[in-house]
Design a protein that fits this description.
- There is one protein chain.
- The protein has about 500 residues and is of the alpha+beta class.
- It contains ten helices and 14 strands.
- The protein starts with a helix and ends in an 8-residue tail after the last helix.
Length: about 500
């Protein structure tokens, strides 16, 4: 009794050790892992964030833009307002406020014309000093030195603070914000599409592992049947009730099944490797799926409420194309806005050295100004018209793509629905075949035990049972995967909570 207890304890310890090294995963855990590690899905998530950042950026167009500029300019020369020194005559301010002269301030001679004194030029001819001032011979001059009228801008410092507030842009800012919001919607639909693909690939890989695991179990059960038959035939042969040929037939079939079992085990390892790749685990990770342990029937009843209308409503591709059409319409409006004037409020403060407003004095000073700026397009050689035409063409392309996508999605839905109906009929036929195979195997084994049938009859019955059982398992998993594909086609394959 003690030895039996120790043996059971050792077996339990060994089993616990094996399970501690094996990672047991449920379907939901596999899906969660796949969603967390998918590089393509991470890219889509970042694209959603990028679209949200662009939307926040577009909102700033409503607000005033404030800029500050600082500059320093080094020039090699001063600025001279005169090319050389200038000599100006010294005259008199007349009673009417104009510049004139007295007779003692010029060398010209004088004569009387119509009772008025008129100066004479160098040739002795009278002239009008207002129309011919160059003939005046001045006695006294004053000098304007060239250096006194120079501006030293060799070291110039300029600082500017400017503000620009858009008032009217023809609707460009509004449509740009609308386009940014549409960009977020499109990015989210692309993320949803990628999520659907990840979920479909992962769950398909999961059930493929279950399918191959069931094949391994079925092959192992078949091998057990053959081993028991081999044992019985050997005993009958020892008693002279079976021939050496019967033993060889069983052994040949046993070798064949053993080879199939090895292939199934290798296939199971490869299927698990593929699943590990999808969920981000090392491919050599030893995983055990919960549905492998539960031994429950893996059958699945499809959702009868899934219809084509839901596919047209839920598919991310169609939602994205509808948003692209909206995007093209906004581009049309923005292109049309190029025909309209743009109005903005501007305010500036300029700070400089030299002082631009006080004789370029060498000190810092500032000045502010405010104003309204209007930009009116006049001639752009049809640029706006071509932009509008291009936007209309883009919208038409997206409308054609939408119609084409609807047709393809309808075809996918019909194919998926037909495939499910076929698999259902295949499952019913497989269940009927398995019931018949179970009965035939039971009858063959009883008849063999009674000596009424040959070994080949039992082998045939076992092979038929094995084929029927495998076909039922394939149909069960196939129905689940077919329904999974139908949910993907209708856009219902989303993150499970």
């Amino acid at each position: 009794m003690m030895k039996r207890f120790c043996l059971i304890f050792c077996l339990f310890f060994c089993m616990m050790s094996v399970f501690s090294q094996t990672r047991i995963l449920s379907l939901q855990e596999c899906l969660d892992l796949a969603l967390n590690q998918s590089n393509d899905l991470q890219i889509k998530r970042e694209e959603v964030k990028m679209a949200e950042y662009k939307k926040a950026q577009a909102k700033t167009a409503y607000l005033p833009k404030v800029n500050a500029e600082l500059s320093y300019l080094r020039m090699s020369n001063k600025i001279y307002l005169l090319p050389d020194d200038k000599f100006l005559p010294v005259g008199t301010k007349m009673t009417d406020g104009s510049f004139g002269f007295r007779q003692d301030q010029i060398y010209n001679g004088w004569t009387m014309v119509d009772g008025n004194p008129v100066p004479l030029d160098a040739d002795g001819n009278p002239f009008n000093p207002k129309t011919n001032p160059e003939k005046i011979q001045w006695k006294d001059y004053t000098t304007i030195p060239r250096d006194e009228l120079s501006i030293d801008v060799r070291n110039t410092f300029i600082g500017a603070l400017s503000l620009m507030q858009p008032i009217y842009t023809g609707g460009k800012i509004r449509e740009t914000n609308k386009m940014a919001k549409i960009g977020i919607d499109i990015a989210k639909q692309q993320e949803s599409l990628e999520q659907s693909e990840v979920l479909y690939q992962t769950e398909s890989a999961y059930w493929m592992v279950i399918s191959v695991s069931n094949k391994v179990k079925t092959a192992a059960d078949y091998k057990t049947l053959l081993e028991q038959l081999a044992k019985n035939v050997t005993e009958l042969s020892n008693e002279g009730m079976a021939t050496r040929a019967d033993i060889l037939k069983v052994r040949v079939k046993l070798n064949e099944v053993d080879m199939n079992l090895t292939k199934a085990q290798n296939g199971l390892s490869l299927a698990k490797m593929q699943l590990c790749q999808y969920i981000g685990l090392p491919v050599n990770t030893d995983v055990l799926l919960s549905d492998e342990i539960s031994q429950k029937d893996s059958g699945f009843v499809s959702d009868e409420n899934i219809g084509l209308d839901r596919a047209m409503e839920n598919r991310s591709e169609l939602k994205s194309l509808r948003k692209l059409i909206d995007l093209s319409e906004s581009k049309e409006k923005i292109a049309f806005a190029d025909y309209l004037p743009e109005i903005g409020l501007t305010a500036n403060y300029l700070y400089s050295n030299p002082d631009l407003f006080n004789g370029f004095e060498k000190k810092f000073s500032g000045s502010w100004n405010v104003g309204v700026v209007m930009k009116i397009p006049i001639l752009h050689w049809g640029e706006q018209k071509q932009k509008i035409r291009a936007a209309k063409s883009e919208r038409h392309i997206n409308e054609v793509k939408l119609d084409d996508a609807k047709e393809k999605i309808e075809l996918q839905f019909r194919q998926a629905a037909y495939k499910i109906e076929e698999t259902k009929k295949r499952l019913i036929a497989a269940e009927n075949n398995l019931d018949q195979a179970d009965e035939n195997l039971r009858y063959a084994q009883l008849s063999f035990d009674e000596g009424l049938v040959a070994v080949t009859d039992v082998l045939d019955a076992q092979a038929a049972w094995y084929a029927a059982y495998s076909e039922k398992e394939d149909a069960l998993i196939g129905l689940r995967i077919d329904n999974l594909y139908l949910k993907k086609v209708t856009g219902l394959l989303t993150i499970k909570n």
